[in-house]
Amino acid sequence: MPRRTPSSRRPAPRRTGGARIAPRGPRRIVMLAFPDAQILDVTGPLEVFAIATRLLAERERRDPGYQLELVAASAGPVRMSSGLELVAQRSLRDLRGPVDTLFVPGGEGTRRAVVDTATIDWIRRTDARARRTSAVCSGAFLLARAGLLDGRRATTHWRNCDDLARLFPRVRVEPDRIYVRDGRIATSAGVTAGMDLALALVEDDLGGELARDVARQLVLFLRRPGGQSQFSVALDAPLASRPSLRELQSWIHEHPEADLGVEALAGKMGMSPRNFARVFTRELAVTPARYVERARVEAARQWLEDSRAGLDEVAAACGFGSAETLRRAFQRLLRVSPSAYRDAFARAEGSRASLAQ
């Protein structure tokens, strides 16, 4: 990796007496694009920086904000995994000058990009002249391949954390984080977590008040509660291969308040409890009891988001024996209390209401 010298990267804005000093020009955000990248990994963070810049101009602040650039192997259209195309303003070889923040997206295309020597070399060289480098979702694999995550803490989409740790053992993977910042390198979890990370960078550059205003514009949390597990509880168990078991999965989610013990579920399948537990665990890689707990927590999430029912009522409606059992399950699976979860969604609804007025 090229050796970084003090003159090879743009210094961070100076602070004097707690006040941020505006840079002489806009901070240059360079976003990499490659075929079959996830389009939200690209556009989500860029929109955060664009709104921050617009708010600065509306308030006639001296800080010029951000300059956004999309780069790819060749200038011109780049097809994303959705089939839509984004237009890169310049090619990788034509990028010149200092970079404030390099962003690397993820998506299906990382499978090819991670073995593309030209792309990995470009990431390594550009990082050497950037103030900071960030990756969204599986973009962490590209940073890891470039050697930028060696000895650092990092995260990626919850489905890919085990692979990241296995393929790059020198990376200290933290699987239940929305984003991880280790020095000047940052990584984030799946898709919208890139916007969470971008908000954190805006807060660093421009302060918490402006970052909160950007979050309100986008109806986002400034700091999202919980970890990745909060958003994967109902998703990390696959559908069973046999139709009768898939139907049982649907029934469990539709009737969380029912008797969902092994004997009751085995009876619905016409199987012995022992055989049912063995088949269920083999097909879904999770025990029936753990699956039921996850389904009930998912149901409780919906109650907390959509109603003002008390915890006792929510617990009863979702099959938990008590509010305390609900609290323990929430804390274990989501790393956040039911009350904190509901408060976070209430704040989000308040932001929506204020935008609608």
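Above is the first protein from milestone M3; the second protein from the same milestone is given next.
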Amino acid sequence: MTYFRITIEIQALPDRVWSVMRDVERWPEWTATVTSIRLMDHDGLNVGSRAMVRQPKLLPATWEVTELKEGSSFTWVTRSPGLQVIARHLVEANGTGSRATLSIQFSGLLGPLIARFTRALNQRYLAIEAEGLRKRSETDRQSAATG
């Protein structure tokens, strides 16, 4: 198994979820799976943008955005010898709320081995990130509705 995915329903509009998802440097505020994210390019999150991501239990990694569909998704990739990791982040409308899907895929010569070794961590981190995204998006929605 080299592919991990989680989907979560969020009671907030897609543009609200997207604004939380897209603001990667603020992820440490709502998910314990990220210690810090620093965009290395000063023009925000765009195709070609790079970010230094630090996570508990993992080595620091430079991620590069390879796809971005404004308002709905982005994909970024990190590489090291024998390994490529692709992380996708998607938000879409679902009735009066949203559905977010987060995934991570391992490839390369070491991909299957690393994926197998980190399977429990990947599944746990995706669940924590999805729940953090849900709470942050719904909290922001409630603040906007009352403010």
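Note on the second protein: Helices lie at 14-22, 111-117, 119-146.
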